[in-house]
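Team,

Forwarding the record for the chain on the shared tracking sheet. I've put the sequence and predicted structure together so nobody has to dig through attachments.
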Amino acid sequence: MTKNVGGLDRILRIVIGALLIVGALMGYGWWMWIGIVPLATGLIGWCPPYALLGINTCAMKKN
């Protein structure tokens, strides 16, 4: 798996995922457990839909 999530995208995924999970733990709704998905993709650095669509938000390496 080549990383395709980077920078600001990764930070936002982790923060939003964590906030949704905290909301679920506080009882705001079972649906907030969906926060596991952005949290996991942010921590791993790879997003399956990005891979299918050919999207890459990682910084480009200069040769």
